[in-house]
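User:
Can I borrow your eye for a moment on a structure tokenisation matter? Would you put together a sequence-and-structure record for a protein of your own picking? Please set it down just below, with no commentary around it:
AI:
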Amino acid sequence: MKIQAELEGRLGDGEEDGYDAVVVGSGYGGSVAACRMSIAGIKVCLIEKGRRWEAQDFPTDSFKIMSTVRMENRDLGIRFGPKDALFQVHEQNDSVAVVACGLGGGSLVNAGVTVPTPVRARRNPKWPKEWERDWDTCEASAAAMLRIQSVPIQFPAVKVFGEIAEEQIEQCFETSVKLSINFDLEEPMANSKTPQRMGSCVACGNCLSGCPYNAKSSTDKNYLVSAIQAYFPSLLIL
């Protein structure tokens, strides 16, 4: 990966100290863990199977989507599709798993929907008691990092989102659904230590196969940017 070459060049060939932690995967879980540990001064190696996907690389029609899929059937010994395909489908026995492959993980191919944690879930006795005290602060930090926004009322999709929220979501959540997508014409700079230039959503509906307009706040644009730019050389991505 290009990012690997850049980091290795800056670290130098004589790096032999190793790392304090290794994180596998760069989706929400991996990128947040890598970012927080880097902020704490821990030397982290983040391992990601896939490559970096730029906005223009994402598929925008059915034919292109098929070219970004890899299928693996362990029972039949069948494997086809690029090893670094964006969508990886694994089938074995009666189970099928579909995972995203790329710098940013599942954040590249989800709808970007962000909802607050229900109170009943927060107060589950299985969670550490300290978590209830810090929950609001942590959710606010995540919202700022992901730059969540409400869908503009002029978007045709806002009516659909409203109907879904009314029927399915607002029964469980006190606040409306927001998305980790940029709707502003200019890049929102607030609450971001290392902002990265993003495009504006045009309501193309391509969220689930990657945003071709660079408007989705996937983890490669926030948590990993913060970890690399603000706390380098604590983080190495392979």
Q: What stands out?
A: Strands lie at 21-24, 44-47, 69-73, 78-80, 87-92, 95-100, 113-114, 178-179, 235-237. The longest helix spans residues 129-146. Confidence is low (pLDDT under 50) at residues 1-14, 188-192.
